[in-house]
Amino acid sequence: MTGNPENGALMEIACDESGSDGENLTGGNTDVFAHASVRLPAETAAEYVQEIRRRIRSPATEYKANHLLRDKHRAVLESFLGPAGPLRDGNAHVHLIEKTFFVVDRAVDLLLDEEGDDSEAVTLFREGPRTFGERGWRDFLAASNQLLRVRNDAAATVPADVFFRTVDALRDEYSGTTAGVIVGRLAAARSRAESYRERMRDSPVLFPVLNPLLPSIVSTTRYWLAGGRSVRLVHDRQNMLTPERIAWIMESAPLSDVQLVAARSDARVQLADFLAGIARKLASDELNGRGEPALTALLRPYVGTDSVWGDEGSGLRLGTAEANSAV
């Protein structure tokens, strides 16, 4: 950290992510994406990393979140997240994305042109599974993911055709329901979908709509820029962070600078890596009914209120804005 945030001096914020499956959000290995950011002096971060290594005593050359998540290291995990740990007092932030809701939100935004208003996406996400059943809902999510993803090289059929066969069938079968009405509106937006697929085919895509990293960085940046602060991001190296994308992020934020580093070379990024992995696992546990209240309570102070989260129950426990606004 190169300055005090209260006096407008430059802050360095270290970032990393966990749960990246590219654009495969409905059939990947994880159901939650987490982007964590940490504000600490490099020397302080290095001391905490060494303390964690001393307490865990693993021979691994690079520690990851799963070291802290092991049952035998529960005390280390609680200390890391707890009020006496390095990250409290406004020193850390986590942006969470529930991947299947992200797909629904992006599909509704694209086809119904409702950017900034996610009410219909939330309604469809919550009503769809109980209205369409497990198989119908799974088919809708898969078709939506396929429609929106940039790369469809392995697709045997045209993504738009698959999507509209799916929503047409759901509309016809469930026409008298709230979810059926919304998919009916989606079914009427074929021209938008085809225009989108043509753009994907004909020109390079700077910002894939289904990749959660870029909007997470934007959200993280907005959090730390609040109050007129000047911010430099120090981020773990990512293939998605090309010079063109970094330039766009810096201009739209605006940021003072973005520096890409290897996580193991910067203790601050290592701490962000720990936090991202821990947050992804604990949030996924909550989403799937396996959460531990004590650990969720420790995570909650770090969770951003603009996290992209549709599930109401777990959102209430984690503290995400979508769930809070629904009560």
How would you characterize this protein structure?
Helices cover 53% and strands 11% of the residues. Helix 4 packs across helix 5, helix 5 (119-148) packs across helix 7 (178-187) and helix 6 packs antiparallel against helix 7. The protein is built from 14 helices and five strands. The protein is an alpha/beta fold. It has a five-stranded mixed β-sheet, with helices on both faces.
Supply the key terms.
alpha/beta; disordered N terminus; 327 residues
Mean pLDDT comes to 91
Q: In one word, what is the shape?
A: globular
Distance between the termini: 38 Å
Order of strands, main sheet, comes to 3-2-1-4-5
What's the gyration radius in Å?
21 Å
Summarize the structure.
This protein has 327 residues and is α/β, with parallel strands linked by helices.
Please write out the topology:
Layout: E1 10-18, E2 32-38, H1 42-56, H2 65-69, H3 74-81, E3 92-98, H4 99-112, H5 119-148, H6 159-173, H7 178-187, H8 190-202, H9 213-225, E4 230-236, H10 243-252, E5 257-261, H11 267-287, H12 293-299, H13 312-318, H14 321-325
Parallel strand pairs: 1-4, 4-5
Antiparallel strand pairs: 1-2, 2-3
